[in-house]
Sequence to fold (204 residues):
Amino acid sequence: MSKPKESITERLNAANVAISNAISDPLIGKFLGQYGYQSQKLSEGKNLYEVADTSVKKQISAYGDQKIATARVLKAEKEARIAYQNLAKVARAVFAKDKAKLAILGLDKPMPKPLPLFLTMAMALFDNASHNAEVAETLKSYGYTAEKLSKERQKIVELTVANQAQESAKGEAQNTTYEQNKALDALDYWMSAFVKIAKVALRE
Fold:
């Protein structure tokens, strides 16, 4: 079925006006009834309109939620990368001549850019910095106490949670778009026949 040129709002408004008038106006209802569009068939069209209208509203809401989730990810990622960079710079300075310690912290490589890899490496950095007694003791003297490491690590956790929420929001937005298109197509199909037959029924 070819896509209508009208906007979604125009399609919904046109369907609502046509179906509502057909139901509420006895004379129009009488003529349409002679061509098979009695109350039951008109109710079918009304139901299709209501499903389409609801699906459009859900889709708008879902994409709004996705935008909010994306904004949260961007904010959380900025804070998480700063936390990673700060600890990485301190550790690289402190363990400049100790390649083994840098390897333990995952700092024998540059900071990864892709988010999934960054999350893995950042979590490893903070966990190993906390769990390796020698590393933790050394970093403590440079301001990275156990409490600070835990607080900064939480920023990585928050990014992980925000990223998962964003992925979930993306999936929901895609699902609601599919359901919206499906409902609109069903309404358009019903309206296509209805309009043609209404023109015949109401010709005079």
Q: What stands out?
A: The chain has seven helices and no strands.
